């Protein structure tokens, strides 16, 4: 049965569609972290940021900055209008966490 439409002020992503469908309509009991970066749209929660891109280039999108990660392993940071920011603004612990998170679906 479809749930009632809701309005939310939380940020949502296309990543959230699969976990929402799997849990609410297909009866999957697994935690969404087993198969997705997304979250159930009916249980929104705060995101500090998210990762997007493809296997050659990707970025971590945060509220006030974008951290670009290049194939060479170099990083740079920009604001939302793509103006360069000082590299001291990069939270390297967050980058490390996101890199590990991104690789969790690859076979080791």
Helix content: 10-25%
Q: What is the CA-based Rg, rounded?
A: 16 Å
Largest sheet: 5 strands, antiparallel
Number of strands: 5
Average pLDDT rating: 87
Shape: globular
Measured between the Cα atoms of the first and last residue, the distance is: 39 Å
Low-confidence stretches: none
Share of residues in strands: 15-25%
- Structural classification: alpha+beta
Oligomer: single chain
Q: Count of helices?
A: 2
Give the H and E element order. Answer: HEEEEEH
Strand numbers in spatial order across the main sheet:
1-2-3-4-5
Descriptive overview:
The chain is an alpha+beta fold and 108 residues long. It contains 2 helices and 5 strands. The chain has a 5-stranded antiparallel sheet, with helices on one face. A hairpin with a 5-residue loop joins β4 and β5 (84-85). The protein is globular.
